[in-house]
Amino acid sequence: QVQLVESGGGLVQAGGSLRLSCAASGSIFSINAMGWYRQAPGKQRELVAGITSGGSTNYADSAKGRFTISRDNAKNTVYLQMNSLKPEDTAVYYCNADASGSRRIRDDYWGQGTQVTVSS
User: Fold this and answer.
1) How far is CA 37 from CA 24, 29, 111, in A?
2) Cross-strand pairs, 105
3) 3-class secondary-structure state, position 15
Protein backbone atom coordinates (compact mmCIF):
# COMPACT_ATOMS: atom_id res chain seq x y z
CA GLN A 1 0.00 0.00 0.00
CA VAL A 2 0.91 3.64 -0.49
CA GLN A 3 0.25 6.19 2.22
CA LEU A 4 0.14 9.95 1.75
CA VAL A 5 0.52 12.42 4.61
CA GLU A 6 -0.11 16.14 4.16
CA SER A 7 1.26 18.91 6.33
CA GLY A 8 1.58 22.69 6.32
CA GLY A 9 -2.02 23.80 6.56
CA GLY A 10 -3.20 26.43 8.99
CA LEU A 11 -4.80 29.81 9.50
CA VAL A 12 -3.44 32.82 7.62
CA GLN A 13 -4.61 36.30 6.76
CA ALA A 14 -5.54 37.30 3.23
CA GLY A 15 -2.42 38.05 1.23
CA GLY A 16 -0.31 35.63 3.21
CA SER A 17 1.45 32.45 2.15
CA LEU A 18 1.55 28.78 3.04
CA ARG A 19 3.53 25.84 1.77
CA LEU A 20 1.87 22.45 1.82
CA SER A 21 3.86 19.23 1.77
CA CYS A 22 2.80 15.69 0.98
CA ALA A 23 5.08 12.73 1.58
CA ALA A 24 4.38 9.30 0.15
CA SER A 25 5.50 6.21 2.01
CA GLY A 26 4.87 2.48 2.17
CA SER A 27 5.37 -0.23 -0.41
CA ILE A 28 5.90 2.02 -3.41
CA PHE A 29 6.75 0.61 -6.78
CA SER A 30 6.36 3.83 -8.71
CA ILE A 31 4.70 7.22 -8.51
CA ASN A 32 3.50 8.88 -11.66
CA ALA A 33 1.49 12.09 -11.46
CA MET A 34 0.83 13.83 -8.15
CA GLY A 35 -1.55 16.64 -7.42
CA TRP A 36 -3.34 18.84 -4.95
CA TYR A 37 -7.11 19.01 -4.71
CA ARG A 38 -9.33 21.02 -2.42
CA GLN A 39 -12.87 20.81 -1.16
CA ALA A 40 -14.86 23.52 0.57
CA PRO A 41 -18.08 22.80 2.49
CA GLY A 42 -20.95 22.16 0.10
CA LYS A 43 -18.72 22.12 -2.95
CA GLN A 44 -17.20 19.49 -5.21
CA ARG A 45 -13.60 18.48 -4.81
CA GLU A 46 -11.56 20.26 -7.46
CA LEU A 47 -8.08 20.01 -8.87
CA VAL A 48 -5.81 22.86 -7.81
CA ALA A 49 -2.53 21.78 -9.38
CA GLY A 50 -0.94 18.68 -10.83
CA ILE A 51 2.56 17.59 -11.74
CA THR A 52 3.85 14.62 -13.73
CA SER A 53 6.88 12.53 -12.93
CA GLY A 54 8.79 14.55 -15.51
CA GLY A 55 7.87 17.89 -13.97
CA SER A 56 5.12 19.05 -16.31
CA THR A 57 2.54 21.10 -14.40
CA ASN A 58 -1.01 22.28 -14.76
CA TYR A 59 -3.14 24.59 -12.63
CA ALA A 60 -6.70 25.56 -12.06
CA ASP A 61 -7.45 29.02 -13.42
CA SER A 62 -7.97 30.29 -9.88
CA ALA A 63 -4.47 29.15 -8.90
CA LYS A 64 -2.48 30.41 -11.87
CA GLY A 65 -0.01 33.11 -10.96
CA ARG A 66 -0.38 32.51 -7.23
CA PHE A 67 0.34 28.83 -6.58
CA THR A 68 3.33 26.73 -7.56
CA ILE A 69 3.48 22.94 -7.46
CA SER A 70 6.79 21.09 -7.29
CA ARG A 71 8.10 17.67 -6.35
CA ASP A 72 11.19 15.94 -5.06
CA ASN A 73 11.21 12.48 -6.58
CA ALA A 74 14.05 11.29 -4.36
CA LYS A 75 11.90 12.03 -1.31
CA ASN A 76 8.57 11.01 -2.87
CA THR A 77 7.25 14.40 -1.83
CA VAL A 78 5.12 16.99 -3.57
CA TYR A 79 4.75 20.61 -2.48
CA LEU A 80 2.28 23.40 -3.06
CA GLN A 81 3.51 26.93 -2.50
CA MET A 82 0.52 29.22 -2.07
CA ASN A 83 1.01 32.98 -2.23
CA SER A 84 -1.43 35.89 -2.19
CA LEU A 85 -4.01 33.75 -0.46
CA LYS A 86 -7.65 34.77 -0.59
CA PRO A 87 -10.60 33.84 1.63
CA GLU A 88 -11.94 31.89 -1.35
CA ASP A 89 -8.98 29.53 -0.99
CA THR A 90 -10.34 28.26 2.32
CA ALA A 91 -10.83 24.51 2.02
CA VAL A 92 -9.47 21.14 3.00
CA TYR A 93 -6.55 20.40 0.71
CA TYR A 94 -5.91 16.81 -0.30
CA CYS A 95 -2.82 15.24 -1.78
CA ASN A 96 -3.31 12.74 -4.59
CA ALA A 97 -0.91 10.32 -6.20
CA ASP A 98 -1.26 8.18 -9.29
CA ALA A 99 0.92 5.34 -8.09
CA SER A 100 1.64 1.63 -8.01
CA GLY A 101 2.25 -0.31 -4.82
CA SER A 102 4.24 -3.47 -4.34
CA ARG A 103 1.79 -5.46 -6.48
CA ARG A 104 2.37 -3.00 -9.33
CA ILE A 105 -1.31 -2.21 -9.70
CA ARG A 106 -1.82 1.40 -10.67
CA ASP A 107 -4.37 3.31 -8.62
CA ASP A 108 -5.21 6.69 -7.11
CA TYR A 109 -4.18 7.30 -3.51
CA TRP A 110 -5.38 10.09 -1.23
CA GLY A 111 -4.15 11.70 1.93
CA GLN A 112 -6.38 12.60 4.88
CA GLY A 113 -6.32 16.29 4.03
CA THR A 114 -5.07 19.44 5.70
CA GLN A 115 -7.21 22.46 6.54
CA VAL A 116 -6.34 25.82 5.03
CA THR A 117 -8.25 28.81 6.37
CA VAL A 118 -7.73 32.31 5.01
CA SER A 119 -9.22 35.17 7.00
CA SER A 120 -10.13 38.56 5.58
Assistant:
1) 16, 23, 10
2) none
3) coil
